[in-house]
From TrEMBL:
It comes from the Eukaryota. Gene3D superfamilies: 2.60.200.40, Probable inorganic polyphosphate/atp-NAD kinase, domain 1. One of its GO terms (biological process) is ceramide metabolic process. GO terms for cellular component: membrane. Residues 122-272 form the DAGKc domain. Coiled coil: none annotated. GO terms for molecular function: ceramide kinase activity. This is Zgc:158263.
């Protein structure tokens, strides 16, 4: 195949002559000027070619075609580093080549198009796109039509676009409608919109496989539809942690070239009730309270989290509970090994091997209930479980900087009750490169499953919490987006009427005057930005349950000689601590 596609000839770019070579894997062109000692080679992996068009073509700001019969235009991925983020920005590169003859031009186009098909088997042909017009700064529609649609069109992708009119419309569509012919689903919105797609895609796959998702003992089936995220939300944590930048063009290009990043998913169970899924944060205490508080202030937009964070911090709450966890194999990796999961990560690759070459391996990472459960109880400022680093603009290294996207484990972070200054130090370290786990009241464990129960009085609290409403009635969806009245929302998941224990009374009650006057005994769970109003849960990590159109975070070291030539540097790198 490779030798059939190989092509080498002189081509002109503007008035300069280049020697161009197509090897099958790469398209390269080098200035042919003999006198120039610094002549540079531009090398584009064929897998990163977006499109090859006849003539001299532009697509931005508007499409124009000058149909000359010796010219062709190649569009491809071009990288530049981003000052603001961890990863690399992708832009659409474009070079217009002139050939000595029309015959040679047609040969170049044919070979390039065949090479692209051969080397990127996962490129989508047909996509289902959901746009949340109300996510983040409410720019979803504009972002899609001005930045994303032209790229999909250039790549020959046909899209069926649905602008949502209500919450959970995308999830319901994925659960019930005919999805034949679609290669993937794209969401334009934030983490909440991604969560809808995640639930729809996982639910549909299990339905079709005849599996009961609510049963934590079931091994779920991997989802065949890829998911693309075009960031247009408030936090966009899933996009940030899987691409390294919040940039619609970068994300659209990952979709176009059919990149594939498997992702671990945590299923969250409460009794035999409806399961919830998380990829980023399952958090009790501080993060649950911030989310519950922020629901009162949706009108503030993305700033609601900063405001609510300050309010909840000042209220200085902590909660009793018992956390049980099933440790992952410590020989494979550790949350404190100071490495980062980057594009082509070796730890995740080994996990793929284990997952797909040895499906009946009962002693592996993926056998949920093997090993010894460990139990920890006490008072916690927060209990967080994350399947990935959960990095975002606020915290560029994330909740757990060394967590892996696709290793089949999650990181459990226990922050015990401490004084406000200590907790502030813990939070502040999320914004710097200082180790947030290097504090005496913090512990972190790499785990396969977690169980949380309330300490004394737990049963009473849970019963009441259950009554306070796990479902919002009509379609069994969980509470989100201010559907409850203010006071109900605030109490969601708390033990109604539960009195303070003597231990509770040693903790400062709400001081802000914006909420109620007593410190509640029970918090709520934050499941990727959605409130789960029951405190007692069981969580299980499902290795690589879904695949995104992404490739993990590319770091600056993978760039050499400007923005166009890429050196393969696919490994797990050491954190800059
Ligand atoms: N048309 C709609 N009207 C109201 N809510 C919607 C609509 N479409 C989707 N939603 C819901 O809006 C919620 C929030 O949307 P989204 O995640 O896109 O933005 P965000 O909350 O600003 O960002 P982030 O989740 O990153 O913080 C989602 O949970 C989704 O279910
Ligand atoms: C003194 C400075 C203190 C600064 C503290 C910064 C701490 C940042 C930690 C970052 C944690 C991100 C966790 C991701 C959560 C998302 O799945 C979820 C959905 O978008 N977002 C929230 O729940 C929104 C709630 C986020 C709460 C911060
Ligand atoms: Ca993981």
């Amino acid at each position: 195949m490779e030798t059939d596609l190989r092509l080498e000839s002189s081509l002109w770019v503007g008035n300069k002559r280049y020697l161009a070579v197509l090897t099958g894997w790469h398209l390269k062109w080098t200035e042919a000027e003999k006198k120039n000692p610094d002549k540079q080679t531009v090398s584009v992996p064929v897998a990163e070619v977006v499109g090859v068009e006849e003539g001299r073509v532009e697509i931005l700001p508007h499409k124009s075609v000058e149909d000359t019969d010796r010219d062709f235009t190649v569009f491809y991925v071009k990288r530049s580093s981003s000052r603001a983020s961890a990863g690399l920005l992708w832009r659409l590169g474009r070079t217009q080549f002139t050939c000595p003859s029309r015959v040679l031009r047609d040969q170049w186009i044919k070979n390039l198009r065949t090479a692209v098909k051969t080397h990127s088997p996962l490129r989508p042909h047909r996509l289902l796109v959901f746009i949340n017009p109300f996510g983040g700064k409410k720019k979803g529609r504009q972002i899609y039509h001005s930045l994303v649609a032209p790229l999909f069109e250039l790549a020959g992708i046909s899209s069926h676009v649905i602008v949502t009119e209500r919450a959970n419309q995308a999830r319901d569509h994925l659960l019930k409608k005919d999805l034949t012919g679609f290669d993937g689903v794209v969401c334009v919105g934030g983490d909440g919109m991604f969560s809808e797609i995640l639930h729809g895609v996982i639910g549909r796959t299990q339905q079709e496989a005849g599996l009961c998702e609510n049963d934590p003992a079931v091994t779920l089936q991997q989802c065949p539809l890829h998911i693309g995220i075009i960031p247009a939300g408030s936090t966009d944590c899933v996009c940030y942690a899987t691409v390294g930048v919040i940039d619609p063009v970068t994300s659209a290009l990952h979709v176009v070239i059919g990149d594939s990043q498997p992702l671990d998913v945590c299923s969250v169970h409460h009794g035999l009730g409806q399961v919830r899924y998380s990829v980023s944060l399952v958090g009790y205490g501080f993060y649950g309270d911030v989310l519950a508080e922020s629901e009162h202030h949706r009108w503030m937009g993305p700033f609601r989290y900063d405001y609510s964070g300050a309010v909840v911090f000042l209220s200085n709450r902590s909660y009793r509970g018992t956390v049980q966890y099933l440790p992952a194999d410590p020989l494979l990796s550790s949350p404190r090994d100071k490495t980062r999961c980057l594009s082509g990560c070796g730890v995740c690759a080994k996990s793929t091997e284990r997952l797909f070459t040895n499906t009946s391996d009962s002693g592996s990472q993926y056998s949920t209930y093997s090993g010894e459960w460990v139990s920890v109880d006490g008072r916690f400022k927060c209990v967080s479980l994350t399947c990935m680093s959960s990095s975002c603009a606020k915290s560029p290294l994330g909740l757990s900087p060394s967590a892996h996207l696709a290793d089949g484990t999650g990181d459990l972070i226990l922050v015990r009750d401490t004084n406000p200054l200590g907790f502030l130090k813990y939070l502040y370290r999320h914004t710097t490169t200082q180790d947030q786990f290097d504090l005496p009241f913090v512990e972190v464990h790499r785990v396969k499953a977690v169980r949380f129960s309330l300490a004394d009085g737990g049963e009473e609290a849970e019963d009441n919490a259950g009554l306070s409403g796990a479902m919002d009635g009509e379609d069994g969806a969980y509470i989100k987006n201010g559907k409850r009245s203010g006071s109900q929302q605030h109490l969601a998941g708390r033990a109604k009427g539960q009195t303070m224990t003597s231990e509770d009374k040693t903790v400062t009650p709400f001081m802000c005057g914006l909420c109620c006057s007593k410190a509640p005994a029970v918090s709520v769970w934050n499941c990727d930005g959605e409130i789960l109003p029951f405190p007692e849960i069981f969580c299980k990590i499902h290795g690589q349950l879904v695949c995104l159109y992404a490739r993990g975070i590319e770091d600056g070291a993978s760039l050499r000689d400007g923005t166009e030539e890429r050196v393969e540097c696919n490994r797990t790198c050491t954190l800059p601590r």
